[in-house]
User: What shape does this take?
Amino acid sequence: MSNPFEIIEPTCISFSGGRTSAYMLYRVLQAHQMSLPNINGKTMHGNCDLCMLKPKAQILSLIQEKPERALWWIKQEEEAFNRCPGDGKFFAIDRPTYAQMYKYAAEQTDMFDQNEEAISCFCGD
Assistant: This one.
């Protein structure tokens, strides 16, 4: 019998925020072996990938991890820019646009060589 909480394709999940919602989210995560990455007690990816309510550094980190995440958000900003006057055309006025963060992430390089080999050592005694 298949698990009714297992999601096998991209899906939008909406919860009201009550106890039942928390239980449903728990069951969905349980069906996927709680596979949202947890970094210092925080699930960086969460429900809405680049939500404007997330901190700027977290959004930038998620764009660096998977740049194509930003494309939908950039498109929404571009469409709003053409339709809305004033600050209403931005998701948030206190930060760079998604296009600017996407460009910044693409221009940055890693400080260290990811293929660098470690020096042999014995840290025993």
